Amino acid sequence: NYVSVGVSVGTEDVRFCLMDLTGIPLVQEAAAVAPIAPAEVIAALKAKMTDWFSTIAKNRTLVGVGISMQGFRDGNHDVFHPPELLSAWENMPIETVLSRELHQPVFAENNATSSVVAEHYLGAGSDLSCIAYLSFNHGFGAGIFWENRPFRGGHGNAGEISAIFLRDQLVHRPALGELIKRLAGHKIDVTSVRDLTLRFEPDWPGIAEWLDEVKPQLQFALRALQATIDPQAIFFGGEAPEILRDMLVDIGKSAFTDERLPMPTLITSKLPGDPAHLGAALLPLHQLVF
Questions:
Q1: Quick check: 177 and 191 in contact, CB under 8 A?
Q2: Within a 10 A sphere around the Cβ of 287, how many other Cβ atoms?
Q3: What pLDDT is attached to residue 18?
Q4: Is the dihedral of CA 250, 256, 257, 262 positive or negative?
Q5: Burial of 154 (0-12, 13-18, 19+ CB in 10 A)
Q6: I need a labelling partner for 269 at 20 to 30 A (CA). Which of 100, 176, 186, 251 fits?
Q7: Can you tell me the distance from the alpha carbon of 102 to that of 98, in angstroms, rounded to the nearest whole number?
Q8: DSSP classification of residue 253
Q9: DSSP string covering 79-145
Q10: Residue 61 near residue 274 (C-beta atoms within 8 A)
């Protein structure tokens, strides 16, 4: 009879989720609001919750609300520095603001960590004690789940994997925003990450070249994860379409050169799309129930 609410704020859209206590999503939908305007996102969420709790969730008890945000923390657990496309969320104490607006417990997490929570509870990571999730979005991040909880690290930025690259290497990391730029150079007009996901063709001109370009950085990231958290498995997901996830797994397989070390299994996540909204809805359940 209990439910939770999740919301993910991405560079291109906002997604809402209503989830029951078993982890089954009762509703998943994209919000008709731009992610760049926090006040509009909060208003849309309040309206959606009012609708849900007068219809599908009538007579159910809300456990809490989770929100997934792209970006890194500055040490404050609910303050994020998101990509420039989400700059209006910069320095906002998200849990404090949403708790005040919604009168509910609110739990904030970055998108990659939210996604690894979803992979643990709803995907193929439930039987493993230590997993990592690579989130291929406009940027490139990672989430870590260790000993039955998401691992944040000392400043809340564990898994901020793009930080291992020097500034001039960032354009060569496996970020979908960079892939879109490479495709434009081959006269493939892709307008957004969502457009890329919907229309992706593995034989597009420029795809093979981009995979060759990002291979060293991807393999470096995989070795860094192996050397630091020693995961049993690394899942490839985010907004990358499944066939591109498979291609990235293929170029990652030769990353591990020290045969003395156990190698993590590289796995294409089967959770459809970016599951950050699902992971967000699981945050209150994980913190207060499970």
A1: no
A2: 15
A3: 98
A4: negative
A5: exposed
A6: 186
A7: 6
A8: G
A9: -EE--GGGGGGTT--HHHHHHHHHSS-EEEEEHHHHHHHHHHHHSS-TT-SEEEEEEESSSEEEEEE
A10: no
- Three-state DSSP class for residue 230: coil
Report the alpha-carbon distance of residue 147 to residue 13 in Å, rounded: 32
Secondary element (H or E) of residue 43: helix 38-52
Interatomic CA distance for residues 193 and 232, integer angstroms:
29
Overall size of the chain counted in residues: 290
pLDDT along the chain (290 residues), means of 10: 96 96 95 96 98 96 97 91 94 96 97 97 96 97 96 95 96 98 97 96 98 98 97 98 98 94 97 95 91
Indicate the burial class of 27 (C-beta count within 10 angstroms; 0-12, 13-18, 19 or more): middle
Q: How many Cα neighbours within 13 Å face the side chain of 30?
A: 11
Main-chain dihedrals φ then ψ at residue 8, nearest 5 degrees:
-115, 135
- Give CA–CA dist 222/214, Å, rounded: 12
CB of 106 within 8 A of CB of 64?
yes
Alpha carbon distance 137, 143 (integer Å):
13
Residue 14 has a pLDDT of 97
